[in-house]
Amino acid sequence: MIRKTALLTGFAGALLFAAPVLAQEATTPQTPEPAPAEAAAAQPQSLTLTPGAVVKSANGAELGKLVGAQNGASGQELTVRGADGAVRAVPVAGIRQDGADIVVNASLSDFQAAAAIADEAPTEATPSTAGEPSA
Questions:
Q1: CB 77 within 8 A of CB 92
Q2: Which SS3 state, helix, strand or coil, does residue 83 take?
């Protein structure tokens, strides 16, 4: 009888010792840890917008040179001076940086179809009539 009591007491003691460990394992969350790429994507991207930087479309076509940024009717926009010297607005949605270049979602045809900004004068000199004699 003493053997039986000692055996049952030992078994009960082992269960009492293991119970916290079993309870702790049962309550730990079973979700996997997020991958490093997912964690990096959750953080906002840092951009360096330097006037004069090359602005490209998503397919790699050069739109022009960055002049600055402004708040337009559709939200924030970049102002870009195209090859023709006119400054046009490009939406910042989907903007990213590729080295020193800035890549936007607008295509070259979208950029060229946009209206020129009236406040910015073209860089090309227009012929002046100041020195010509009047008739």
A1: yes
A2: coil
pLDDT, tens only, 102-114: 999 888 888 888 8
d(CA 114, CA 104): 14
Query: 2-19 pLDDT, tens per residue?
Result: 877 877 787 677 766 666
Is the CB of residue 63 less than 8 Å from the CB of residue 77?
Answer: no
CA distance 85 to 89: 13
- Burial label, 10 (beta-carbon count in 10 A; 0-12, 13-18, 19+): exposed
pLDDT for residue 133: 44
Q: What's the pTM value of the predicted model, to 2 decimals?
A: 0.55
Q: Give the span between the Cα atoms of 53 and 68, in whole angstroms.
A: 10
- Residue recorded with tokens 């055996």: 7
**How many C-beta neighbours within 10 Å does residue 62 have?**
14
